[in-house]
Amino acid sequence: xxxxxxxxxxxxxxxxxxxxxxxxxxxxxxxxxxxxxxxxxxxxxxxxxxxxxxxxxxxxxxxxxxxxxxxxxxxxxxxxxxxxxxxxxxxxxxxxxxxxxxxxxxxxxxxxxxxxxxxxxxxxxxxxxxxxxxxxxxxxxxxxxxxxxxxxxxxxxxxxxxxxxxxxxxxxxxxxxxxxxxxxxxxxxxxxxxxxxxxxxxxxxxxxxxxxxxxxxxxxxx
Length: 222
Ligand SMILES: Nc1ncnc2c1ncn2[C@@H]1O[C@H](COP(=O)(O)OP(=O)(O)O)[C@@H](O)[C@H]1O
Ligand SMILES: Nc1ccn([C@H]2C[C@H](O)[C@@H](COP(=O)(O)OP(=O)(O)O)O2)c(=O)n1
Fold this sequence. Notes:
Elements: H1 8-18, H2 27-31, E1 40-46, H3 52-63, E2 66-69, H4 70-79, H5 85-93, H6 100-113, E3 118-122, H7 128-137, E4 145-149, H8 152-162, H9 171-194, E5 198-202, H10 207-221
Parallel strand pairs: 1-3, 1-4, 2-3, 4-5
Bound molecules: adenosine-5'-diphosphate and deoxycytidine diphosphate.
Deoxycytidine diphosphate (YYY) binds near residues 103 and 168.
């Protein structure tokens, strides 16, 4: 289903999307996907501008997790001048979601390199393909999913004021990203909700108050 090849990941990914059951038989491939490393993962989800990055920095500082932002890894890939950079840039500027194989490869490399066993993964999985392929290829379920719930009006306002020079923080792309969030990312959150794995936070409050709620969850889990 994908045209690019990244070694074993491609085999496992095509299988995962075509027939998830077969993946259990591919455990030997999956177990090697993090170089034998055993890690705990928390997915941090929420719409664009809901405050994921802001709160992830707080979590790193207070609870010693490694923060991996899928969006930042993709932007670093663009800036590195990699062969996929132009394609990734075009997709992000259109407000769309980059093919899972690329994002998962970047996450996989970052986890293998990371000097820790606790990861908060921010902005991933962003669609059903991201979710199915990650869980099948990397063979890890998240401990839980932290969901920053914020109104679209507030997210739009924050993104327009973010001022980080991002090519996708313009009104046209922001509207597309919000649409993609509702259509493609919310179903992923609903999936985890149906499994009782979502911890929802009211993210419309000021950042320090949001962190109080985040802190309660992480303190409880420690
Ligand atoms: N609770 C909050 N209230 C108001 N502004 C916020 C809050 N959390 C984050 N921001 C600001 O909103 C913008 C988007 O936040 P960010 O953490 O980058 O969101 P995300 O990673 O979800 O896209 C940033 O400029 C940030 O400083
Ligand atoms: N799993 C992901 C995460 C991000 N991306 C792309 C598409 C997103 O619009 C951009 C930016 O994502 P990022 O999480 O950094 O920022 P926002 O939450 O949208 O503010 O990256 C992706 O294609 N796949």
